[in-house]
Amino acid sequence: MATIRKHTARWTTKEGEVRTKVRWRAVYVDRAGEEHVKHFDRKTEGQDWIDEQTAGLVRGDWVNPELGKQTFKAYAEAWRARQVHAESTRTTFEIALNAHIYPKIGDWRIDSIRQADVQELVAKWSATAAPTTVHLRYGVLAIVMKAAAKERVLAGSPCEGTRLPRLDPKSALVPITTDVVKELSEMIYPRYKNLITVLAGTGMRRGEILGLTVDRVSTDFNTIRVDRQLRTTEPTWKPPKTPSSVRTMAVPDIVLEAIEDQKKTFGIHESGLIFTNSSGNPIGKSTLWMAWNTAAKKVKTDATPHDLRHYFASMHIRAGTSIKALQALLGHKNAAETWDTYGHLIGDEDETVRAVLQAALGGGPVLKSVPGISGDPWAAGS
């Protein structure tokens, strides 16, 4: 049902003059029986509006104009509340929305967001973030907008046609495999074999592990306390990279076994340092690099010691550890940093994660669980 009627408004000015203005009141009723009203200066404009709305009702693609008035954040939060997501997926959406999308368009009316706005947002992300990270953020936005279109909040998704930065396979972090980790530990000088095991099993930074002392290791509770890093080989220490880097980590038995073997085989420094060089002194950066590069050439890998930290993170992601929990283990400042670095490694067991990646890649192949990982995780007995 639809009607258009003349509506005359009358009012009196301060001078007592009576004035009138003719407008046209257009009305139509949707399938739910709700009445929609809009006023126009010209009858033809009102009739065009009615024709457009009723045609949408007939075709089945009608959009309720009232729903489009809500903010993007209001819709996205209501939509998220209706989803049944795995914890990793909830975290992915939470970080992308709160850290990168809401600050830009969260307060905008959702029906006011255009393709040009999405393209501008992607361009701003691309100026400071890696292509893989941009694709992931865009993927979250695209999923929400696609849902809004499906639920007839929008006539279509403003994400359609967005140009994304080209994905360079070399730009995406690809963790080294367990086989490479084991080969490195076998090929490196015996004095540093256990160091590789501990790095791979804890994800510690170079300075953190070189500054690790026996009083920071608890065999009773299977934990390592990280609250400082090696500054100089005198030795002197300094605080970790950031305040959030201070952490106590639960570690697997293989890590504690490696530490005990190191102590028994090579002894410890008078300061309590667990890992020392061939002279029994603190290990300098150049000494570690020399030993590492010698082993890396034998294994034929361009991996660096920091890649063992990425390996540690990838194993946790493969095991289902949440981004927030991984943030604490790695000592990152916030979960957004962890997600930006490792979000593309999230497994494909959850349908929504697959959908995010599918949207991010613009219809390309869905990323599989953890690129570059094969064989059993690094664990005792493996």
TrEMBL record:
Species the sequence originates in: Nocardioides panzhihuensis
GO molecular function: DNA binding
Alphabetic keyword roster: DNA integration, DNA recombination, DNA-binding
GO BP term (any one): DNA recombination
Recorded superkingdom: Bacteria
Family: Belongs to the 'phage' integrase family.
Protein's name according to its UniProt entry: Integrase
Domain Core-binding (CB): 70-149
Domain Tyr recombinase: 162-355
